């Protein structure tokens, strides 16, 4: 199994290298050169298996022997043992043909834990073999950052720097990042929005002297291993509802396009997914792009689903790579145009995308109304991101079961949930004292040189 860049001119890598490399050296994102297909029988055999076993069967073909089977099983078990639900990702029925996949039972209460806990294990195992030390720099709109700190805190050979947009994450999210006491955790509140944070992280990767000097690694979904670990729950949920004997559809609250791209990979591996529905909040660039063929940023607008306040969706590049027939030059050209505001998607590529993806947008009012309505009718207390998903899914219900991904716990966004329901959801016992813990963070400017200087200074021996 080899990994190639979406821009076509970076070195071809094996799984371990791709995981430790993050962004490709031509600025692109790594994808497998071929997607392994699972047979009808392989998929049918997953029904009813523990989550950990499904993870092993789905991910193993991508590893190219980088981990031995027993070692990989051990890493998977260690990754999910801290989850607070025995099913890991339980399914709840909302309506006769509409189900919710609860992905918020991990340690930081968001779907990010599914991948981050596992790549934490995999990276530690890889570093133990190589004896290297790495510097992780990540960008977050709230959830990736807290999940990354939880997965890497206290490790002797890893420093974790997380850039988050100052004032644009919830208090719970901020405190999850600013309260770890371990000296290797660095929470950086940056002036700007998530797109600016993500752009500075990519700038650091594109500065080879800096990148190689600090041994930079990435844990955002630019890292292929993050996406891969998220493919698992599509198989787990779909087989629980009768796949591969019947098809299902998924609706995915979307920002950086990593989660829904994992669903796309599951579909290419043979899972019968009829449609993957992109659900956006008022930052609706992906919905506009799919409807009109024009991918154009119009500035990030703060919303009550802040983790999805994103306009430059990194992983859309991976989908474009396939839609343009794996033409790295074409993708490079589009990404150059994006730097000046946006690009037009060719008719052929648009038709390819529309064969797999549908889309919808949910306003702020609709988000609140959906939280209110779901509590009244089903008893399910949704976070605002999951509510965006449920609303858009309701507009796309059809003959096959629809599974909406519930991406975060309502307690991470108590203000919006209280506004919609009058109920202020409390934090679970393992986080009950979050607001009593002292915070530690650094305000930083949106300035590459200043950020690089800070990273260098903090990791200096
Ligand atoms: C709670 C929540 N929902 C949805 C999303 C969107 O996921 P993705 O960026 O993979 O599209 C995010 C952020 O990534 C998130 O934190
Ligand atoms: N919503 C995310 C944004 C970063 O996404 P990633 O999947 O690329 O890490 C967050 O919560 O940080």
TrEMBL record:
The keyword Transmembrane does not apply. GO terms for molecular function: pyridoxal phosphate binding; threonine synthase activity. GO terms for biological process: threonine biosynthetic process. It catalyses: O-phospho-L-homoserine + H2O = L-threonine + phosphate. CDD domains: Thr-synth_2. Residues 99-332 form the Tryptophan synthase beta chain-like PALP domain. Its EC number is 4.2.3.1. The modification N6-(pyridoxal phosphate)lysine is found at residue 112. Residues 2-80 form the Threonine synthase N-terminal domain. Keywords: Amino-acid biosynthesis, Lyase, Pyridoxal phosphate, Threonine biosynthesis. It holds the Pfam family PALP. Its cofactor is pyridoxal 5'-phosphate. InterPro entries: Ser/Thr_deHydtase_PyrdxlP-BS, Thr_synth_N, Thr_synth_N_sf, Thr_synthase-like, Threonine_Synthase, TrpB-like_PALP, TrpB-like_PALP_sf. The keyword Lyase applies. Pathway: Amino-acid biosynthesis; L-threonine biosynthesis; L-threonine from L-aspartate: step 5/5. PROSITE patterns: DEHYDRATASE_SER_THR. Belongs to the threonine synthase family. This is Threonine synthase. It comes from Tabrizicola piscis.
């Amino acid at each position: 199994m080899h990994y190639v860049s979406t821009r076509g001119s970076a070195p071809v890598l094996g799984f371990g290298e791709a995981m430790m490399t993050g962004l490709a050296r031509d600025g692109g994102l790594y994808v497998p050169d071929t997607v392994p297909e699972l047979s009808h029988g392989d998929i049918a055999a997953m029904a009813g298996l523990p989550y950990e076993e499904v993870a092993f069967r789905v991910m193993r073909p991508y590893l190219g022997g980088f981990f031995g089977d027993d070692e990989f099983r051990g890493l998977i078990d260690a990754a999910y043992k801290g989850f607070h639900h025995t099913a890991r990702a339980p399914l709840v029925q909302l309506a006769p043909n509409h189900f919710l996949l609860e992905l918020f039972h991990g340690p930081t209460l968001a779907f990010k834990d599914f991948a981050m806990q596992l790549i934490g294990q995999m990276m530690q195992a890889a570093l133990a073999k190589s004896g290297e030390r790495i510097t992780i720099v990540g960008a977050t709109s709230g959830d990736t950052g807290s999940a990354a700190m939880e997965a890497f805190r206290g490790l002797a050979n890893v420093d974790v720097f997380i850039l988050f947009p100052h004032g644009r994450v919830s208090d719970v999210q901020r405190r999850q990042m600013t309260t770890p006491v371990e000296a290797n955790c660095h929470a950086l509140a940056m002036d700007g929005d998530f797109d600016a944070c993500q752009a500075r992280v990519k700038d650091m990767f594109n500065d080879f002297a800096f990148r190689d000097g600090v041994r930079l690694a990435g844990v955002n979904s630019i890292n292929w291993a993050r996406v891969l670990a998220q493919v698992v729950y599509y198989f787990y949920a779909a087989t629980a509802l009768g796949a591969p004997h019947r098809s299902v559809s998924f609706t995915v609250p979307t920002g950086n396009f990593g989660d829904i791209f994992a669903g796309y990979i599951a579909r290419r591996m043979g899972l019968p997914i009829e449609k993957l529905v992109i659900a956006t909040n008022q930052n609706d660039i992906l919905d506009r792009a799919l409807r009109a063929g024009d991918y154009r940023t119009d500035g990030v607008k703060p919303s009550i689903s802040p983790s999805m306040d994103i306009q430059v969706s990194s992983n859309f590049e991976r989908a474009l790579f396939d839609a343009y027939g794996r033409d790295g030059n074409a993708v490079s050209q589009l990404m150059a145009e994006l730097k000046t505001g946006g690009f037009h998607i060719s008719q052929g590529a648009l038709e390819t995308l529309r064969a797999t993806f549908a889309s919808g947008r949910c306003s702020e009012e609709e988000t609140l109304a959906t939280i209110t309505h779901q509590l009244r009718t089903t008893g399910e207390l949704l976070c605002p991101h999951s509510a965006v998903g449920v609303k858009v899914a309701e507009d796309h219900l059809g003959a096959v079961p629809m599974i909406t991904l519930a991406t975060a716990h309502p307690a991470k966004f108590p203000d919006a949930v209280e506004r919609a329901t009058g109920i202020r959801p409390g934090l679970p016992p393992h986080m009950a004292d979050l607001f009593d813990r002292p915070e530690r963070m650094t305000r930083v400017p949106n300035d590459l040189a200043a950020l690089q200087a800070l990273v260098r200074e903090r990791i200096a021996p």
